Each structure stands twice: as structure tokens, then as C-alpha cells.
């Protein structure tokens, strides 16, 4: 399964949030073998950016480990509102 987590961050908090997310993702990669990606929409609206974390091919139980890592990193101090998680899987061909 692939996890897509999106959330809002104020322009003023973006650098602090990035400084927390990058090492969190590095630790998750080391412990769980999932190479996280950090993305953002190219434009901000009213001083607020939309960011997305992507975790491809996440193993079972990874979502719980991610929630724990987010809490330990204190990301809520820099996000504006809740984190929204979407889960996607590959489309399997019936060939």
C-alpha cells in the first residue's frame, strides 16, 4: 500500500516543519525501509501551503509507526489543521 498524507502549513512555519519532517523520514526509512517523499503544491494561498508526504510500498503496521514518529517529532506544532491520510494500492491486471 502507498500512503499519501496531506496537510496545511503557514509560510512562516515551513522551514521549521521541513527541519522536523526530513529527519523523521530518514529515521522511518532506516527502521522500516520506506523511502518517504516530501512534496508541496507550487503555490501558497493566503500565506498557507499544502504539503504532502508520500510513503510508497509501506509494509503492514507502517501507518502506526508513522503516527508515532509524527507525535515524537512534534509536527503538530507547525501544521495548520489536521493531517489527512489516503491509502492507495496498485491496480492488478487480470491478464
TrEMBL record:
Q: Which InterPro entries match?
A: DUF4936 (IPR032556)
Check the record and name the Pfam families matching this protein.
DUF4936
According to UniProt, the name of this protein is: DUF4936 family protein
